[in-house]
Amino acid sequence: MHDKNHHSEHCHHNPGNAAAGASSTAHELLIEGAGCASCVGKIESALKQVPGVTEASMNFAQRSVSVNGEVSDKALIAAVEAAGYDAKVAQAESSEDLLNEKEQADQAYYKRLMREMAIALGLGVPLMIYGLFIGEMTVSTTAERIAWLLVGVATLAVMLFSGRHFYVGAWKSFINHSANMDTLIALGTGTAWLYSMVVVFFPGVVPEMARHVYFEATAMIIGLIDLGLALEIRARGRTSEAIKRLIGLQAKTARVLRDGQEVDIPIAEVLQDDQVRVRPGEKIPVDGTVLEGHSSVDESMLTGEPMPVEKSADAEVVGGTINKSGTLLFKATRVGKDTALARIISMVKQAQNSKPPIGRLADVIAGYFVPTVMIIAVLSALAWLNFGPAPAVAFAIVSATTVLIIACPCALGLATPMSVMVGVGKAAEAGVLIRNGQALQTASKITAMILDKTGTITEGTPKVTEIVPLAVEDEAGVLRLAATLEQGSEHPLAQSIVESAKERELSLGSVEGFNAIAGHGVEGRVESRTLLFGNEKLMRERQVDIDQHLEQAQTLAAQAQTPMYLAADGKLLALIAVADPIKADSVAAIQRLQHNGIRVVMLTGDNRATAKAVADQVGIGEFFAEVLPEDKSAKVAELQQQGEVVGMTGDGINDAPALALADVGFAIGTGTDVAIESADVTLMRGSLHGLADAIAVSRATLRNIRQNLFGAFIYNAAGVPVAAGLLYPFMGVLLSPVIAGAAMAFSSLTVVTNANRLRLFKPQDH
Amino acid sequence: MLIINLLGLLLIALIVWWFWIYQGPTSQLDEGRITISVKNGVYEPAHIRIKAGQPAVLGFVRQDPSPCASVVVFQDFDISEELPLNQAKEVRLQPMQPGHYPFTCQMQMYRGELIVE
Predict the structure, then answer these.
(1) CA distance A455 to A649
(2) A12-21, A159-168, A497-506: which range is least confident on average?
(3) Measured between CB atoms, does A13 come within 8 Å of chain B?
(4) In this structure, is residue A349 part of a structural domain?
(5) How many folded domains does chain B comprise?
(6) Which one of A380, A468, A560, A621 is CB 3.0 to 4.6 Å from A724, fit for a cystine?
(7) Is residue A766 over pLDDT 60?
(8) Hey, is the C-beta of B31 within 8 angstroms of any chain A C-beta?
(9) Interface probe with B: pick from A104, A234, A382, most Cβ of B within 10 Å
(10) Cβ of residue B66 closer than 8 Å to a chain A Cβ
(11) Element (H, E) at B112
């Protein structure tokens, strides 16, 4: 046995992220004007001569070339143009054109099937009415033989016109030693037609009672199955609505500054580092960094976050979002298939096409299905011939045909992918990106959710909440001193102090001899005073007397604030408390999780007092405090050992190992960080509601898949024996092949329709 | 009646042999790539031999408008690619370990196999 698991990891191929990963130096260009295969060498060598290019290889069939190296798209395009061809940056695969093309192809196929259906039913329905109400479909006189012969020829014409795809498909797969739905339909309708023709030509070889023709069955089955397929195409189209909506977000043109002029160009021609202007009400065409201007931008279509976001210089903007109020000039940082939107689309498509493990059994069954049904059909015919009442031949033919026709491997095969398609799309609409089917399935089973405190439950950016002056300086005075000291520090708490001083427009001085004491605080000389700023430990080590104010500090800590002491020349100057505010909707979102029966656990590196205060405020009863970053995964493992299916939510950067170890890792993003590698699920908005939404959608999808699989199993498990005539000895019931055809045609349509019900699912019950 | 029963059983034996036991002809890669047409309910060629440890490029050309044919799934590698109609679509595979790896449509009706040795 080879090691398949290892293998599959080894071979993991994720084209959707190829551009997003480490290979940011990979470029893909589309070449125009390359008419012959010999152009390939010319273009490749032209590209290889561009400084920085390490590799260039062209795919002639797709007219695309992939280039590796530290080089700009502009230089590459220039090189191709110099060689005499046109080139442009490759767009996302799922551009609107491609989608339209697919829709047109589907539409054409739909029309063809409807036409074929009309012809087939045009013959089948009158024949069936004749058989049911007017006359017998039997052959006894010569006149009847001639009449039925004509009908038989007409049926053959229908088979060739309306059902040719079944017969060609069946034959092609037969010679390839495989069998599919076409095989079943071709065999079923072919048997019925052939038997009827035998009755017409050689009535003598079958008993008188069995001289019945089944031309109507052949025509009806072909017509009904064509109809089923046509309706299925329509229904399938609706399952990809979410992706269509995402693709529709892409802007078509961009206004770019070229040679000092503003020009409107197709979005495909926007290059990295281009300067792009967006006016109020316009879509932002590509990702970039704002150079000038101020505006609010509606990012709800990507993040699900309804509040517009303020943007000014240095802010990041994302393609596909809408500029609301002001004009922005920004520098394009990611274009073509590297934009956040393109990556979201590619990731959603990838996930939509991936299968959760729940579908595996159905796949295994589907693989053996058709030959098994053929064997059952033969066995059923034999049983009727041996034990059936007269006319045994007719019963044998009817039962074999019905078995072949009613069996529907498609419903089994479609059950899972259709629901995944709709479910993953639905999640994307709520700003939740699910990496694959496996993640979707596991997310539905989560029993415990670990939430990292900082940046997940809280905003992640601490703010100064309280300043308690203890000596001569006032609030502004101590803040100025503390901020001056902390200017050089990169600690998040330090930044909050500096930020707060800036808000109060305090002018900061300079610091000498700055020294950061890890885990304690900082020291330095400001205005010829020796300042110490840090925690209790630091004060104790430097013998600063803080005993009088210890209680006050502890009270602050109990309110989830982090107290820090500022001392000058060995004497305490002030207490400054910093806190990381809890996100406005964390409490409600956590309640939603708890209502869904999920054990919510908080994890933080902070001290117990702060942890407890935050946990109390958001209604979490269980928490791990003072957890070092490297120990986070141990806590995940601890819950897993208790038998929990553990979800872990974090920012995806500091807690990558814990996210990877958890059964499902959720990364809370900020809209642009779409493809956080370590996460199974990326929440594009900061709100924890995304988490509850993700779990709600995954549960609804899995429920839908189970309904589909159950329906498909029961349908086949009940339909095939009934078609074989199992009920006949007890109730005298034998299905007609026409009913079987209708049942089969609508079974797979039912699966697709049920999957479409998921579109109506609303995850936000807050 | 005996003859009919024997014929029936023979037919079953033939079905088992033809669809499950028989090992059909296989195709080799040409310079690491092969073009597979998706048409009339089958992949052609459907059985492809690949040397272990070598990457492979499978160029799918779908000429079948049926929606069933629109996605090709390599279950073992977690790959599933949409195949646009009448356009080449490449699936690049990393070097593989020996084994049999099926590729199918979503409904498992189109079936092919990579034989890595």
Answers:
(1) 10
(2) A12-21
(3) yes
(4) no
(5) 1
(6) A380
(7) no
(8) no
(9) A382
(10) yes
(11) strand B111-116
A472: domain range?
A: 463-579
Residue B2 domain flag? no
Model pLDDT for residues A389-410, shown as the tens digit of each residue: 888 888 999 999 999 999 988 7
A296 occurs within a structural domain: yes
- Most distant CA pair in chain A: distance in Å? 124
The two structure tokens encoding residue B68 = 């069933």
pLDDT digits (tens, 9 = 90+) for A296-343: 998 888 877 777 888 988 888 989 999 988 899 999 998 888 888 888
Is A740 a domain residue? no
Same domain, yes or no, for A109 and A184? yes
A447 and A588 share one domain: yes
For residue range B43-90, what is the model confidence (pLDDT) as tens digits? 888 889 988 888 888 989 888 888 778 888 888 887 888 888 888 888
Rounded to two decimals, what is the model's pTM? 0.79
The residue of chain B nearest to residue A366, with distances taken between CA atoms, is B108
Q: Show the domain range for B55.
A: 25-116
Cβ-based contacts of B67 with chain A (< 8 Å) = 106, 109, 232-233, 236
| Residues forming a β-bridge with A287 | A334
What distance in Å separates the CA atoms of residue A639 and residue A628, rounded to the nearest whole number?
17
Could you tell me if A118 and A196 lie in one domain? yes
- The ipTM estimated for the assembled molecules is 0.84
Cis before A729 (ω within 30): no
Please list the residues that pair with B111 across neighbouring strands. Answer: B104
Does residue A191 carry a pLDDT above 90?
yes
Which site among A10, A13, A369 would you substitute to test the B interface, given the most B Cβ atoms closer than 10 Å to its Cβ? Answer: A13
Contact A277, A255 (CB under 8 A): yes
Distance CA B18, CA B26 (A): 16
**Per-residue confidence (pLDDT) for residue A764, from 0 to 100:** 63
Nearest to A168 among B19, B40, B90 (CB): B40
Q: Is B82 on the interface with A (CB under 8 A)?
A: yes
Of A15-19, A81-85, B40-44, least confident by mean pLDDT is: A15-19
Task: Check residues A20 and B75 and name the one with the higher pLDDT.
Answer: B75
A66 close contact with B: CB closer than 8 A: no
Closest CA–CA distance from residue B10 to any residue of chain A (Å): 10
Average pLDDT of chain A to the nearest whole number: 85
A99 plus A185 within the same structural domain: yes
Instruction: Indicate whether A470 and A551 sit together in one domain.
Output: yes
CB contact under 8 A, B78 and A177: no
**For position B95, which CATH number holds?**
2.60.40.420
Q: Which of B12, B96, B111 sits opposite A7 (nearest CB)?
A: B96
Q: Do A198 and A268 belong to one domain?
A: no
DSSP A131: I
**A452 among known catalytic residues:** yes
A303-to-A79, A192, A670, A674, A692 alpha-carbon distances in Å:
39, 57, 8, 10, 15
Token digits for A593?
């999780």
Q: For residue B80, is it within any domain?
A: yes
Give residue A22's pLDDT.
30
Kindly state whether residues A231 and A99 are assigned to the same domain.
yes
Of residues B1, B76, B108, nearest to A386 (C-beta): B1
Q: Please indicate, yes or no, if residue B14 is contained in any of the structural domains.
A: no
